[in-house]
Specification:
By secondary structure, the chain is α/β, with parallel strands linked by helices. The chain contains 19 helices and 12 strands. The protein has a 3-stranded parallel β-sheet with strand order 1-2-3. Strands 4-5-8 form a 3-stranded antiparallel β-sheet. A two-stranded antiparallel sheet has the order 6-7. Helix 7 links the parallel strand 9 and strand 10. Helix 1 crosses helix 9, helix 9 packs across helix 11 and helix 15 crosses helix 16. The longest helix has 18 residues. The chain is elongated, with a radius of gyration of 31 Å.
């Protein structure tokens, strides 16, 4: 059996860390098993779906290295869904319901008031044909529900183990709206059967949905006369570092936004691949290596904590490992050469920080000199050699200041760093000193903007 998984976002918004984690887990599983990764655009909501969002999704996935083998678009398969839905109606799997949203809301409130679960009462099944015609004459069009078996549905979850849901505890799901628009479930199940999806891996918020969808799967396979029920896996959801819900923040955690912040794709995949597992989070730049160590057995059920600070630390580690040739096109656009890159890469969090160090070296800054440090910086200014300076000149300068002032350690080096760069932390000063140059260094050490 060839493993085949799918990632099926709706092109109604941008990808964020929550849904990209599902894409990554599916991709890693497929890659490890020499399988197929299908990207499916769930664009049945034509009013909200846009080509721009669809292209953005593909751009984000490609940037992360999550290349797909096959692509499908649901809006091109409406005829297929129509054919299956006709069969489901004829066989009694789908039944028409005429309640308005307000009527359904009143029913749920009454059930809760009586201490009952708000499960649809199947009142529509008691309607006569005359009743239905009356509603239609009033201008009401039905929505269509799938009639569940009201039995316990069981499966062995790839992550949660043996799992069961009593479908009597949930409402018959609405599969088709009054305006004829297909909701998520029916097209998804049809596509999973038709494209021979072997494993469906998604968030644990879909556990109850899976029980109802298994029954829809079986109905679709009965119509097709073939097909195999996929295996299901439900991973834990992401929460914030303090355990808070991420749902309100997901818009600010878009993949596009992270890319614009200068976060490396390997930092995102390294973190998301290991969150919620028993494996330590490590900076891994090769997706194949991440896939080799991937296993559902290592995934726990506790919520996975997403910490932006941890992501930034990973980003810094990855940049420390990055050769100039791997990012030359991006650095060249910033005016950063290999020598400067080698000097600053151990002291940056994002690639954009390298450009800031270039500005410090080649642009103008206001030196930071405390009154009590003026003696040391004046001595340093006097010790700056004329003409071209090298990294070796840095030790000569600091020795001269040490002799003139008696300073050593932090008291010696910090005032010089602040005067020359305006920063209290940063790359090795020998390289920075040589790059800043004699004229600019002398001016800054003298307290002048340069």
């Amino acid at each position: 059996m060839t493993v085949k998984v799918r990632f099926a976002p709706s092109p109604t918004g941008k990808l964020h860390v929550g849904n990209i984690r599902a894409a990554l887990l599916n991709w890693l599983f497929a890659h490890k098993n020499d399988g197929v990764f299908l990207l499916r655009s769930d664009d049945t909501d034509q009013a909200r779906s846009t080509e721009a969002f669809e292209k953005g999704i593909q751009t984000d996935l490609a940037w992360l290295g999550l290349t797909h083998h096959e692509f499908a678009r649901q809006s091109e398969r409406f005829k297929v869904y129509d054919d299956v839905s006709e069969y489901l109606r004829a066989e009694g799997y789908l039944y028409p319901c005429f309640e308005t949203p307000e009527e359904l809301d009143r029913k749920r409130k009454l059930q809760r008031a009586r201490g009952l679960p708000p499960v649809y009462d199947r009142a529509a099944l008691s309607l006569s044909e005359a009743d239905r015609e009356k509603y239609r004459a009033e201008g009401r069009e039905p929505h269509w529900r799938f009639k569940l078996s009201r039995e316990v549905v069981q499966w062995t979850d790839l992550i949660r183990g043996d799992t069961s849901v009593d479908t009597a505890s949930v409402s018959d799901p609405v599969l088709i709206r009054e305006d004829g628009q297909y909701l998520y479930t029916l097209p998804s199940c049809i596509d999973d059967v038709d494209f021979a999806i072997t494993h469906v891996v998604r968030g644990e918020d879909h556990v109850t949905n899976t029980a109802t969808q298994i029954e829809v799967f079986k109905a679709v396979m009965a119509y097709r006369g073939e097909g195999t029920l996929p295996a299901f896996g439900h991973h834990s959801l992401l929460v914030g570092k303090e355990g808070e819900a991420l749902s309100k923040r997901l818009g600010s955690l878009s993949i596009e936004g992270m890319r614009e912040q200068g976060i490396e794709p390997a930092a995102i995949t390294s973190l998301l691949a290991r969150l919620g597992t028993s494996d330590p989070v490590e900076a891994v730049t090769d997706l194949s290596k991440l896939a080799d160590g991937f296993s559902f057995d290592r995934m726990g059920r506790a919520p996975a904590r997403f910490d932006m600070d941890e992501l930034m630390q990973l980003n810094a580690k990855i940049l420390q490992m990055t050769d100039y040739a791997d990012v030359e096109d991006r650095l060249s656009a910033m005016g950063v050469d290999e020598q400067l890159w080698l000097a600053v890469r151990g002291n940056i969090t994002t690639l954009n920080d390298a450009a800031q160090w270039r500005s410090i070296v080649e642009g103008e800054i206001d030196p930071v000199i405390a009154p009590e440090d003026r003696e040391a910086t004046d001595a340093a200014a006097a010790a700056v050699p004329e003409g071209t300076i090298t990294e070796d000149d840095w030790s000569k300068l600091t020795n001269a200041v040490k002799e003139a002032t008696g300073r050593k350690g932090k008291q010696l080096f910090m005032p010089l760093r602040l005067a020359l760069t305006g920063q209290s932390h940063g790359p090795e000063m020998a390289t920075m000193f040589a790059r800043i140059g004699s004229k600019k260094a002398k001016a800054r050490l003298s307290g002048n903007r340069a």
